[in-house]
Design goal:
heterodimer, A: mainly beta, B: 111 residues, five-stranded mixed β-sheet
């Protein structure tokens, strides 16, 4: 079973530019999450999709961030325009839905974003 | 916000057991204790979870005190590959979302 994949692994952009991060969850996982760790800080939740619907986007820092999950498969996270404080590692995770006792979240390797 | 307290760091000798403590004195009856770890340059990885009984899997054991206010993750035979940041997380099982990571414990396994 393939794990959660993220693309790109690294991205270096200049302030004011746009960047789009992609996440492919484990096949069949309805739940998809985005987290990030900015420099020196703890890993923070950004938002949660159930299939194509946003279940919780309380962690999204501001309206420069837009997440989508069209068709309930892969997800994208767009940052427009990027600011210096957006630099960090963005993690995607997925989990099954339902009453399984093993509904842990499986994380991807992350995308390291550097805004210059 | 994290509801747990962990020591910032600890060292462990390779081949020995590593005992990682976690305090969660405000845990409520429907909240589970989860442990994740993050090995450098990788995403967080699930280790184990429990409610009130001790749990064991192929990776670790979880010992939860009777009052549930603290727990200990045990790595029975630590290897160099177990060097990572370990996170103790309290969450409701019914809410299948939002892991709240704290600062965790940086565990260094030394040869």
């Amino acid at each position: 079973e393939a794990g959660v994949t993220q693309f790109p692994s690294h991205s270096v952009i200049e302030k004011g530019q746009t960047v789009t991060l992609r996440c492919d969850p484990i096949s069949g996982h309805d739940n998809l999450y985005w987290y990030r760790r900015v420099m020196g800080k703890e890993i923070k939740f950004l938002l949660h999709f159930v299939k194509e619907s946003k279940q919780d986007e309380s962690g999204m820092p501001n309206n420069r961030f837009l997440a989508e999950r069209t068709g309930g498969t892969y997800s994208t996270l767009k940052v427009q325009p990027a600011e210096l404080e957006d630099s960090g590692v963005y993690f995607c995770a997925s989990s099954r839905r339902g009453t399984s006792p093993y509904n842990e979240q499986f994380f991807g390797p992350g995308t390291r974003l550097t805004v210059l | 916000d994290a509801k747990t307290t962990q020591p910032p760091s600890m060292d462990c000798a390779e081949g020995r057991a590593a005992n990682l403590p976690c305090n969660h004195s405000t845990i409520s009856g429907n909240e589970y204790v989860y442990w994740y770890r993050q090995i450098h340059s990788q995403g967080p990885q699930y280790i184990i979870h429990g409610l009130k009984n001790n749990e064991t899997n192929e990776m670790a054991s979880l010992i939860i005190t009777e009052d549930r206010k603290s727990s200990t993750l045990i790595l029975p035979h630590a290897t160099l590959r177990d060097t990572a940041v370990y996170y103790c997380i309290v969450r409701e099982r019914s809410n299948d979302y939002k892991l709240s990571f704290g600062a965790g414990t940086t565990v260094t396994v030394r040869a």
